[in-house]
Amino acid sequence: MRVDGIAGSIGAMDGRGSRPMTGPDGERLSLCVCSTLRMVSRAVTQLYDDMLRPSGLRVTQFSILGAIARLGEANLRQLEHTLAIDQTTLTRSLKLLERNGAIDRVPHPDGRIKAMTLTSKGTRALEAARPLWARAQGKVLRELGTTAWADAQRRLAHLLRVAVKKRRRTRGQSRAQPRRARRGSL
Predict the structure, then answer these.
(1) Residue 11 has what pLDDT?
(2) Which stretch of DSSP H or E encloses residue 132?
(3) pLDDT given for residue 173 in this prediction
(4) Where are the beta strands (DSSP E) in 31-183?
(5) DSSP 3-state of 183
Protein backbone atom coordinates (compact mmCIF):
# COMPACT_ATOMS: atom_id res chain seq x y z
CA MET A 1 0.00 0.00 0.00
CA ARG A 2 1.36 3.40 -0.94
CA VAL A 3 1.58 6.31 1.47
CA ASP A 4 -1.48 8.00 -0.03
CA GLY A 5 -3.43 4.77 0.42
CA ILE A 6 -2.40 4.62 4.07
CA ALA A 7 -3.37 8.24 4.64
CA GLY A 8 -6.76 7.70 3.04
CA SER A 9 -7.35 4.54 5.04
CA ILE A 10 -6.54 6.24 8.30
CA GLY A 11 -8.77 9.19 7.48
CA ALA A 12 -11.60 6.79 6.72
CA MET A 13 -11.21 5.23 10.17
CA ASP A 14 -12.69 8.22 11.95
CA GLY A 15 -15.51 8.66 9.47
CA ARG A 16 -14.52 12.23 8.65
CA GLY A 17 -12.35 11.54 5.63
CA SER A 18 -8.80 12.73 5.27
CA ARG A 19 -6.99 15.64 3.76
CA PRO A 20 -3.38 14.64 4.29
CA MET A 21 -0.67 17.24 3.95
CA THR A 22 1.31 17.06 0.76
CA GLY A 23 5.06 17.56 0.91
CA PRO A 24 7.22 19.19 -1.76
CA ASP A 25 7.74 15.84 -3.48
CA GLY A 26 4.02 15.17 -3.63
CA GLU A 27 4.07 12.56 -0.87
CA ARG A 28 1.05 12.51 1.37
CA LEU A 29 1.32 12.39 5.12
CA SER A 30 -1.33 10.93 7.36
CA LEU A 31 -3.32 13.11 9.72
CA CYS A 32 -2.50 10.49 12.37
CA VAL A 33 0.45 11.73 14.46
CA CYS A 34 1.60 8.19 15.23
CA SER A 35 1.48 6.96 11.62
CA THR A 36 3.34 10.00 10.32
CA LEU A 37 6.03 9.79 13.00
CA ARG A 38 6.49 6.06 12.39
CA MET A 39 6.76 6.61 8.64
CA VAL A 40 9.36 9.34 9.09
CA SER A 41 11.19 7.28 11.71
CA ARG A 42 11.41 4.24 9.42
CA ALA A 43 12.72 6.32 6.52
CA VAL A 44 15.33 8.13 8.64
CA THR A 45 16.35 4.87 10.35
CA GLN A 46 16.89 3.25 6.94
CA LEU A 47 19.03 6.19 5.83
CA TYR A 48 21.25 5.94 8.94
CA ASP A 49 21.37 2.12 8.71
CA ASP A 50 22.49 2.37 5.08
CA MET A 51 25.21 4.88 5.96
CA LEU A 52 26.37 2.80 8.97
CA ARG A 53 26.38 -0.51 7.07
CA PRO A 54 30.19 -0.57 6.50
CA SER A 55 30.67 -0.49 10.30
CA GLY A 56 28.50 -3.56 10.84
CA LEU A 57 26.24 -1.60 13.20
CA ARG A 58 22.65 -0.52 12.80
CA VAL A 59 21.63 2.89 14.15
CA THR A 60 19.83 1.32 17.14
CA GLN A 61 23.01 -0.54 18.10
CA PHE A 62 25.08 2.60 17.54
CA SER A 63 22.74 4.55 19.84
CA ILE A 64 22.91 1.88 22.55
CA LEU A 65 26.72 1.72 22.41
CA GLY A 66 26.87 5.52 22.53
CA ALA A 67 24.59 5.63 25.59
CA ILE A 68 26.64 2.98 27.41
CA ALA A 69 29.83 4.88 26.54
CA ARG A 70 28.38 8.11 27.98
CA LEU A 71 27.08 6.42 31.13
CA GLY A 72 30.19 4.27 31.66
CA GLU A 73 28.04 1.44 32.96
CA ALA A 74 24.34 1.14 32.26
CA ASN A 75 21.47 -1.04 33.33
CA LEU A 76 18.31 -1.82 31.36
CA ARG A 77 16.20 0.81 33.08
CA GLN A 78 18.79 3.55 32.44
CA LEU A 79 19.01 2.61 28.77
CA GLU A 80 15.22 2.41 28.39
CA HIS A 81 14.92 5.88 29.89
CA THR A 82 17.90 7.42 28.07
CA LEU A 83 16.92 6.07 24.65
CA ALA A 84 13.11 6.00 25.11
CA ILE A 85 13.23 2.46 23.72
CA ASP A 86 10.94 -0.43 24.59
CA GLN A 87 12.37 -3.27 26.65
CA THR A 88 11.86 -5.94 23.96
CA THR A 89 13.83 -4.03 21.31
CA LEU A 90 16.50 -3.10 23.84
CA THR A 91 16.90 -6.66 25.14
CA ARG A 92 17.12 -8.08 21.61
CA SER A 93 19.77 -5.51 20.62
CA LEU A 94 21.76 -6.03 23.83
CA LYS A 95 21.84 -9.81 23.31
CA LEU A 96 23.22 -9.31 19.81
CA LEU A 97 25.81 -6.77 21.00
CA GLU A 98 26.84 -9.12 23.80
CA ARG A 99 27.07 -12.11 21.45
CA ASN A 100 29.27 -10.04 19.11
CA GLY A 101 31.55 -9.08 22.00
CA ALA A 102 30.72 -5.35 21.97
CA ILE A 103 29.36 -5.28 25.54
CA ASP A 104 29.84 -7.26 28.73
CA ARG A 105 27.47 -7.82 31.60
CA VAL A 106 29.03 -6.72 34.87
CA PRO A 107 28.09 -7.52 38.47
CA HIS A 108 25.77 -5.05 40.16
CA PRO A 109 25.25 -4.75 43.93
CA ASP A 110 21.57 -5.56 43.35
CA GLY A 111 21.77 -8.99 41.73
CA ARG A 112 18.43 -8.44 39.96
CA ILE A 113 19.83 -5.58 37.89
CA LYS A 114 21.57 -6.32 34.60
CA ALA A 115 24.40 -3.84 34.05
CA MET A 116 26.48 -3.51 30.87
CA THR A 117 29.76 -1.91 29.90
CA LEU A 118 31.51 -1.51 26.56
CA THR A 119 34.30 -3.92 25.75
CA SER A 120 37.36 -2.78 23.83
CA LYS A 121 35.71 -4.31 20.74
CA GLY A 122 32.56 -2.28 21.42
CA THR A 123 34.59 0.90 21.85
CA ARG A 124 36.39 0.25 18.54
CA ALA A 125 33.07 -0.46 16.77
CA LEU A 126 31.60 2.78 18.12
CA GLU A 127 34.65 4.80 17.08
CA ALA A 128 34.65 3.24 13.60
CA ALA A 129 30.94 4.03 13.17
CA ARG A 130 31.08 7.66 14.36
CA PRO A 131 32.36 9.14 11.05
CA LEU A 132 29.67 7.19 9.16
CA TRP A 133 27.03 8.45 11.56
CA ALA A 134 28.38 12.00 11.12
CA ARG A 135 27.96 11.63 7.34
CA ALA A 136 24.34 10.53 7.75
CA GLN A 137 23.71 13.35 10.23
CA GLY A 138 25.31 15.88 7.89
CA LYS A 139 23.23 14.68 4.95
CA VAL A 140 19.98 15.04 6.88
CA LEU A 141 20.92 18.45 8.28
CA ARG A 142 21.97 19.76 4.85
CA GLU A 143 18.63 18.70 3.38
CA LEU A 144 16.51 19.83 6.31
CA GLY A 145 18.50 22.84 7.48
CA THR A 146 19.85 23.37 10.98
CA THR A 147 17.20 25.95 11.88
CA ALA A 148 14.37 23.66 10.79
CA TRP A 149 15.97 20.79 12.72
CA ALA A 150 16.30 22.92 15.88
CA ASP A 151 12.60 23.82 15.59
CA ALA A 152 11.62 20.19 14.93
CA GLN A 153 13.78 19.02 17.83
CA ARG A 154 12.06 21.44 20.22
CA ARG A 155 8.62 20.30 19.07
CA LEU A 156 9.56 16.61 19.17
CA ALA A 157 10.98 16.99 22.70
CA HIS A 158 7.62 18.39 23.79
CA LEU A 159 5.77 15.54 22.07
CA LEU A 160 8.08 13.02 23.75
CA ARG A 161 7.42 14.55 27.19
CA VAL A 162 3.67 14.42 26.58
CA ALA A 163 3.76 10.81 25.36
CA VAL A 164 6.01 9.57 28.18
CA LYS A 165 3.95 11.37 30.83
CA LYS A 166 0.69 9.98 29.40
CA ARG A 167 2.19 6.49 29.10
CA ARG A 168 3.34 6.51 32.74
CA ARG A 169 -0.14 7.57 33.87
CA THR A 170 -1.80 4.92 31.69
CA ARG A 171 0.60 2.18 32.84
CA GLY A 172 -0.15 3.01 36.47
CA GLN A 173 -3.88 2.72 35.87
CA SER A 174 -3.65 -0.46 33.80
CA ARG A 175 -1.81 -2.32 36.58
CA ALA A 176 -4.86 -1.93 38.80
CA GLN A 177 -7.15 -3.37 36.14
CA PRO A 178 -7.07 -7.00 34.96
CA ARG A 179 -5.36 -7.61 31.67
CA ARG A 180 -7.94 -8.52 29.05
CA ALA A 181 -6.03 -8.78 25.82
CA ARG A 182 -2.53 -9.62 24.81
CA ARG A 183 -0.49 -7.33 22.59
CA GLY A 184 -1.41 -7.77 18.95
CA SER A 185 -4.82 -9.28 19.68
CA LEU A 186 -8.09 -7.68 18.65
Answers:
(1) 43
(2) helix 120-144
(3) 56
(4) 74-75, 103-106, 115-118
(5) coil
Which pTM does this prediction carry?
Answer: 0.73
Q: Where are the domains of the chain?
A: 32-167
Residue 104's contacts (CB-CB under 8 Å, 6 or more residues apart) are 98, 116, 117, 119
Q: Splitting the chain (186 residues) into consecutive groups of 10 residues, what average pLDDT does each group show?
A: 41 46 64 89 96 96 97 91 89 95 89 89 97 97 95 93 75 52 54
- 74, 116 in Cβ contact below 8 A? yes
Q: Give the rounded distance of the alpha carbon of 6 from its chain centre.
A: 22
Handedness of CA 77, 154, 48, 163 (dihedral sign): positive
Helix (H, G, I), strand (E, B) or coil at 22: strand
* Long-range contacts (CB closer than 8 Å, 24 or more residues apart) made by 113-116: 113/75, 113/76, 113/77, 114/75, 114/76, 115/73, 115/74, 115/75, 116/68, 116/73, 116/74, 116/75, 116/79
User: Nearest-5° angle of CA 39, CA 91, CA 169?
Assistant: 65
- Into which CATH architecture does domain 32-167 fall? Orthogonal Bundle (1.10)
